[in-house]
Amino acid sequence: MWHLPMPRPSDAFQPATPQSSIHGSADMLPLELSPPWLEMPEEQFKQRYGPRQKTSTAFLGRTLLRSLNEVLANAPSERALTKKPLTVNLSPPLRLAPLPRELRFYIFNATQNSGERKQDAFKIQLSTRPADAVESGKSARYKFDRSGNILPILVGYYAPLNVYILWDADLHDLGAGYSYSNSVYSKSEVVYEAAALGVAESDFRLRNGIVENIIAARSDALVEGLKRRIKATVDRSLGGW
Question: What's the alpha-carbon Rg for the chain, to the nearest Å?
């Protein structure tokens, strides 16, 4: 299954850059130089790095990496944590295979608001533009970065329940791409089920009629959630759409 080609992104699960070159990157630190927040007790981490008002990109990145600590090959630098997307190098043990050596995370704060058009739903807003984007404005459209054959992972984090929502990124920049601040939704039930059981799945019908398989995972089950997210993306791609 994992060696079959995907139409998009192509060869997404090929081995990544050799570790020797990764260690030399300005945006990566070897694990022996890992920052203290990676192993910090949860309450201490929240007190020191938790958001005071608005949830920052750096907080979301640190939280994600803490959830992936058991499979990390490198710790991204403080500079990398302030940017979207966040590319993460993985070194999963055999018991946690199959996982690719690199993933590119677009992580956003997930919110729930009973006043939204879509009630009983969680959402994120795609408030990011590619670094090399030359367009702006309401008509501009953007694509997730797939350079280096690295799979983009679209993630929402809901801190009160410590749950990640994992969307199929390929379905959210189809055609011309996504618009800035576009909203992406998930049913509430899949988030609550993941909080209780660890991992949950749910279907959600998009405006274009495509039914998306959404995965939600509690922090301590994020690796399993990612495995399911990647498998679901591969299965959909091999199905011809």
Answer: 17
